Amino acid sequence: MHELGLMASVLSSVEEAAHEAKATRVTCIRLVVGDLTEVVDDALGFALEALGPGTVSEGAELVVERVAPRSRCTQCGHEFTHDRFHRTCPLCDALATELLAGRELYIKNIEIAHAPSFRSRQSKADRGVLGDTHLDDTHLGDAHDGARNTKAR
What we know:
The chain has helices at residues 3-20, 41-51; strands at residues 25-34, 61-67, 70-73, 79-81, 97-101, 105-113, 127-135, 150-152. The chain is an alpha+beta fold. Helix 1 packs across helix 2. The longest helix has 18 residues, at 3-20. It starts with a helix and ends with a strand.
């Protein structure tokens, strides 16, 4: 179950971003996951439940947005969606295609909460959304080794 290692990397990035924003807790984590990563949504949820307690992400909602595979034919230039097994160009039947989407795995954004200020129980400034921290998807086959790079966008 490589989802446990992936979620550990996600939580590490989330915890760092929450700490930098001086958040008291993370209320929602939104991930974008390509269908070709073979990541199982329920396993990600289980991993969050297992790894979240005792962190600022404890009890956070997990939202996973799936990305269907999309390729471009290197012969005719046609872009098309497909499943994981059928990447032949539907226009010219060429086998040479370039994968454009479907291997993504990144944190789209997180929702955070701050300690209530003295003037109000929770002002708009006491809640926030931090966005688009991407996990480098160039080596998804090695995702289980925990050597994931992060970069803010």
